[in-house]
Structures are given as C-alpha cells and as structure tokens.
Amino acid sequence: MTTTGYLIPGTPAPPSPGFADLPGLMALLTGDEKHTAAATSTLDVLWVLYDRVLNVTPETAEDPGRDRFLLSKGHGPMAYYAVLAAKGFLDPGELTGWTSARSRLGTHPDGTLVPGAEIGSGSLGHGLPLGVGTALGLRAQRLTTSRVVVLLGDAELDEGSNHEAIALAGRAALDRLTAVVIDNDSATHGWPGGIERRFAVEGWETRTVDGRDHEALYRAFTAPNTARPLAVVATVEPKG
Amino acid sequence: MQTMRETFLSTVGAELDADPRLAVVLADISAAQLEDAAVRHPDRVINVGIREQLLIGVTGGLALSGLRPVAHTFPSFLVERPYEQVKLDLTHQGVGAVLVSSGASYDMSTEGRTHQSPADVALLDTVPGWTVHVPGHPEEARRLLLDALPGNGTVYLRLSAAVNAEPHHGTGFQVIRRGGAGVVLAVGPMLDRVLAATAGLDVTVLYAATVRPFDAAGLRAAVGSGPADVVLVEPYLAGTSAHLVTEALSTTPHRLRSLGVRRDSEVRMYGEMSDHDRAHGLDEASLAASVRAFLP
Q1: Collapsing DSSP states into helix, strand and coil, what is residue B156?
Q2: Which of A107, B15, B89, B280 has the most CB atoms within 10 Å of its CB?
Q3: Contact (CB<8Å) B65/A141
C-alpha cells in the first residue's frame, strides 16, 4: 500500500486500508514482508476487533462511552501498531522510526505515549486486572454499552494475577468484559483440559475458535452472551 | 476518641454518599466495617477478596474508567506484596489513586513479621510522584484524606494506632519548638515522644505529617546557614528520608542522625507496641539518649 497519501493535504482520502495492507505496515517496523507465526499470532484477532467489533475510532478515542481494548500481552506489538496505523490512530509514517529515542513506539507499548492505546504493558499479568477494574468502573458510571476487551497469551495465564481477576470477574458477572486468549501452545507447563476450563469454572461463558478464521472470530466476539463475562480462546499455530 | 482507622472508615463511607466519582476497593480487611456503605453503593464499594495484586489492578482500572479509587488494607499487603502493581497499574498508566494503609510498622505487635511493614514509605520512594502522609492524629488523618479525595494524584495515607495527644494542622514542616543547638524533625506519631525526649534541650523541633513532597525549604529555614546538627525521627525504616535531608542541605554544612525502625536485623519478638518501640530505640528514653549523644 501507499502510505504517503495520509501525509499530503488536499488529496482525496485513500481507500481505507484492509487486512491485506497489514503486512506492508508491519514491514515498516521490521523491514520484512514475511513474518513468522509467532510475530503475527495476534494479527487476525486484532484486525477483526478493530475492523468489525470495537466501537472506537481516532475521533472517539477519549469518549467515556467508547469500547476499550487492553493489550495485556505487550511483547511483539508489531501487529498492534500496524492495526492502529491501518485504522488511523497512528500515522503510518511513525512506524518506520520505532524503538528509536524519538519514537513513541517501543517493543512494549506505553499507554501514555501511543495514540489509541488504553494501557501500557510488557510485564505479564497486568491487563486483565486493569480490565476488570475498568469494567467495574464503567458499570458504576452506568456506561453499560461500553465493552472492555483484554488480549492475553496462553503463557501469560501462568501469572497468578490473572487468576485473581478471572475469579472476581466471574463472580461480579461482568457481562461487558471479554478476555481473548491467543493460544499458541507456549505455556511451559500447559493447561490440561484446555484453557476454556479455567474460565468456565469461575462462571465465564467460553468459546474456542480458530484464531486465523475471521468469520469465526467475529461470531465468537459478537454472538449474544448471557450475563457473564466472555472468554474467547483463539487457537493459532504452536509457537516454533 | 476514634482511631485513625475508624476515622478513615467513617469518613470515606460518608464521602461515598457525597461524591459519585469515589470508589473504595478492599481485600477483605475492613469490609465488615464498610458493609453499610457497600449496601448503599454496591458498585462503588468493591471487595475483591484476599487478592492483593487484584486490589491494585482493579484500583488502576477504576481510575482509567474515570473514577477516583481509594484502596485500603494493611500496609504489607497494600504496598509490599503488590509493589509492581503500584508501580505499573497506577504510576506507569498515568492514573491516580489514594492508598490508605492501617497497621504501620508494628501496630500489630503480637502478629510477627508478616504483619509489619516498615519499608512501605521507602518502597514508594522508588516510584515517582507519590504524596505520602503520615498523620500523627485521627483528625489530621481525616483532613488529609478529605484533601486527597477530590484530586487526581497518587497519594499514600499511612494510618497508625500510635498517636500524639493533639493534632497539628498545617502544610509543610511546622515549627513546634524553637532552639539554637540543633533541629529534630519528628514525623507523624513520633512527635509527642520527641518533644518529651528533648525537653530541656535547646533544639528546634519540626513536625511533618506530610513527608512527600519533602519540605526542603522548611528544613533549610529551620537550619539557617549552618553548620547544623539534624536528627530525623521516622516511624518506619531508619534513614528513609535521609537522602532528602542531604539534598535539602547540600550547600549547608551539617551532620545527620537518622532514627527509625532498625534495618540491621529482623526483630523477632511479640509483646506490646511499646516493646517494639524500645527494640528499635524509638521510645522516649532511647530517643533522649540518642539525641543527647549526637548533639555536640
């Protein structure tokens, strides 16, 4: 795709970037058009969320009633930055200088620096507790149309803080909270019986889908759920 | 007289009625005392159970959603156990909160090391931007809380069962007594015993209920042009504020003696708070001996 169209005033708006444009945007970060599965494990989920699910745009990024996306698995944020750029939160031109001293984009995102990022992350196990607090806060303010979606990795579930959050969210029936777990089979000791069970036993509604299947992801995120929080396990290729 | 903890709980319960932006987060500790408030405000009094990482994580999330959260438990479980959550879920996210601890360094004198937290203020010193209040009287605690609630900053309010007889309100370091042979800075509940220990000595006694930000100008004003002899008396780890005294007096010739909870060994004893005071050299007699030994 051509990215300079964003930078020239007065020119007609280019067509909105699509999923096929993401590799080009990621190449601005890495210089490599071919990415390993590990580097893109989150790409399809992020795209479906920002393209079709989340009610948030650059114009509404500060609205109290917006949907919130919290990237808890903060490492490997290239796909996240690419999607933010495709959706207009970030100028694609900013991607090229990432990780330099003058850039707002690091190898872990800083929520106070990255436009559109709700939180800073990198240390694992912080996003879901922050998401539970955000969902509780929105409920207390009667902002009940706002969704809170937290993205975690299956290895990140090792952190005990997640299990503190899973228990409370289930008991508090946080029906506007969604946890999406990217499962690339990278947890050292694994999750016998499946990741879903860790959520289901605490009262979450759970759905496991192919993490590369956009329609299946869309349905998992949008099919009506009962008055319970929703866990979507998005299975992708095992980490090499 | 109500204790600081009772004062906090009754005050924050009433403020929940007045301020729709306020939320209180608990980890079982004090949940029973706030049960009535929780019935009135079920969405804004949140007991997460015995989950202290989540206590601070939820507090950060509530702040991100636009509320003003107050998190409360014993200091060992509010600051020490979830230290990384304090660092990342509050300060790093750029959001504020009021953390209110009750228990101080050894209020729970029979409960052992697991319930003692002399390192809380030193730990918060490693994270930028925190205001730290160490009130010496329940009425001071009430006013400091009411000042903190409407703001947006990160505030730590350290409540203790140790108190002075009278409150001393005011901002910065307050001059309680003037003298010419040295300056003794007493923090929070240390004041009355410092006054008693230094009775008859020609020293200035300063009082601090707020230690962060550190009132460097107030200290310099009390010290004058020097050379100066300064004694720091803090109810948590000895020398916690020593670096700030040194910085404040960087161009003033001075000597400094830092008194507080000992760092050299873990005091494995039970007994009363007064027994722990003696073990740490923070009782009146020990303080008097330390100050007299230090002054020229």
Answers
A1: strand
A2: B89
A3: yes
CATH of domain B4-159: 3.40.50.970
The answer to whether A133 contacts B94, with C-beta atoms less than 8 Å apart, is no
**pTM of the predicted model as reported, rounded to 2 decimal places:** 0.96
Residue A6 lies in a domain: no
Q: Which residues, given as ranges, of chain B have pLDDT below 70? A: none
What does the pLDDT look like over B91-120, one tens digit per residue?
999 999 999 999 999 999 999 999 999 999
CB contact under 8 A, A130 and B61: yes
The alpha carbon of residue B57 is apart from the nearest alpha carbon of chain A, in Å, by: 5
**Residue the block writes with tokens 């992350």:** A121
- The nearest alpha carbon in chain A to B46 belongs to A136
Residue of B49, B60, B84 with shortest CB distance to A133: B60
Residues in A closer than 8 angstroms to B94, CB to CB, are 111-112
What's the gap in Å between the CA of B193 and the closest CA on chain A?
42
Q: Measure the CA–CA gap between B58 and B90, rounded to whole angstroms.
A: 10
CB under 8 Å to B88, separation ≥6 — which residues? Answer: A120, A123, A126
pLDDT tens by residue, B215-246: 999 999 999 998 999 999 999 999 999 999 99
Domain with CATH 3.40.50.920 in chain B: 174-294
* A240 belongs to a structural domain: no
Between A118, A131, A140, which is nearest B43 by CB?
A: A140
List, by residue range, all CATH 3.40.50.970 domains of chain B: 4-159
What's the CATH code of the domain at A164? 3.40.50.970
ipTM at complex level? 0.97
Q: B174-294: which CATH architecture?
A: 3-Layer(aba) Sandwich (3.40)
Coil, strand, or helix at residue A26? helix
Q: Could you tell me the residue range of the domain that residue A213 belongs to?
A: 33-235
Cross-chain Cβ contact A64/B48 below 8 Å? no
- How many separate helices (H) and strands (E) can be counted in chain B? 12, 12
Number of domains in chain A: 1
